[in-house]
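We give this protein:

***
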Amino acid sequence: MKSLIIYNIKTLYTNNHQPPVKGELMKDLVTFNDCYIFIEEGIIKKIGTGDYHNLINDNTKLYNAEQAIAIPGLIDSHTHLVFGGSREHEFSKKISGVDYLDILKQGGGILSTVKQTKQASFEELYLQAKKTLDEMLLFGVTTIEAKSGYGLELQTEIKTLQVLKQLNEDQPIDIHITYLGAHALPVEYKNRRNEFIDKVIEDLLIIKKEGLAEYVDVFCETGVFDAKETKKILKAAKLLGFKLRVHTDEIDSIGGTQVALNLEAKTVDHLMAITDKDIKEMAKTDTIANLLPSTSFFLNKSYAPARKLIDSGVAVSVSSDYNPGSTPSENYQLTLQISGNKLRMLPSEVLTAATINPAFSLDIDKNKGSLEEGKDADIVLLNCKNLDYFIYHYGINHTKSVFKKGKLVVKDRNLVKEKPYEIS
């Protein structure tokens, strides 16, 4: 049986509480100093200190961590991975103060991305997203959630979902796929809202039959879809067996959080405008508050009330919201550092919000999200003195190496390509 020992680890950090992890438990980490991780067939068999030589046999490979720290593979549970083109041509307008609605009227914003995504071939979308995934992996991301939503009609949505499905098979990062058909109202449906909503619900049957998505999401916000419309779509999705995620409370609180909680959504995302009442209600549930601080940073908007959420007993995760309009960055480590600086989260809470809580929201916490015996060996080694340094020293890539199910996929901050997943 093939085995691997990662040794000479300075400190290992993990939150091993049963998720969803809430309140004071979010900062309660297990740590091992001067330790090793023993792995067999991609599974963690032992985490220990002291001598490990009795575990070595003819099929054992050794990897020297060189006093790096170890954390679980990072889980980015809100991304818009696949899209055509980019939107840098709007950046000068944004920072000059041009309102988003005015950019939209000029054919920009999400409409620009929808147009470019429709025009792009499967191969073009695949190659652009694959490049993004390579960058994410270099930053220690080993699992993501990724949404469609830049088609706004079935043919392009299916093309996007098929790209995601193929990418999940072809590269190391696990991709959990969400259908976001109700991302915006297409121009051609401006005066036919109900018809578009009925079309999204009708398309759910095809998405389900083809097995193209695990989740369904809706953007419940002023100027997009209201709470009643969101409920109609999500109820239909739940009846078909989809799990639910909801964009809401980004600008205004219009009832989306309550709809999400009533329908037992896995996550409610954004939440900059969440009310105290909804925070209190969410604390009674297992729904994860998925915060997206990089979006607030890029758009110069207010941040979600992370401290209030955590102190009220809500389980919190943090995600990048990678997309071409409001978070064009693969640097998930920066998202975590913004979470510390702007959301006022402790480094230990940030780690919990980037590992075990998003794992719970994706129903993979039995195998991922923490470093424990019996779980997958998704491990990131960081060139840091300690966990605090990881969040404190911002804007750079701290990754040393990344293991995916015990296979080396990043070595010395470079992708392992010549001999994929093998340790030299």
In short: Residues 420-424 have pLDDT under 50 and may be disordered. The chain has two domains: 3-73+370-415, 74-361.
